[in-house]
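WARN no homologs supplied; continuing
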Amino acid sequence: LAAAYDEKIKTIEDENTMHSAQLDREIVHLKAKIAHLEHEKQRIEDKSTKLLAEHYRVNELLISKIDRLEEENKRIEEEKKADLEQRDGKIMQLEKDLSRLEHENKRINFFKDCMIMMLMLLCFAALCLSWS
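OK structure emitted
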């Protein structure tokens, strides 16, 4: 009976040793898998950090570009406003000049009409003198 128990104990110990070896292999495999996943996690974190840095860099470039465009737009608007003011000033001056020229033209036309009347009177006077 003791030999049977010894045999049974030996069998159980062999099975335990076999299971222990199997568990040790699984532990080693799981540790390797954990190490691989941690490496992947680190790689993803590094890539994420790199992408985030690139995002911030591009964002800063875009903000800078927007600021330059806003300044350029403001400058163009100011130039446009100055050009419009200058054009309005020229238009007002041209309107004054036109008014002055129209007045001058009326005066010249009146003078011309007076000269024609005088010429007609002279012709009439000459005709009257030639009959008498």
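The helical segments are 2-131.
OK
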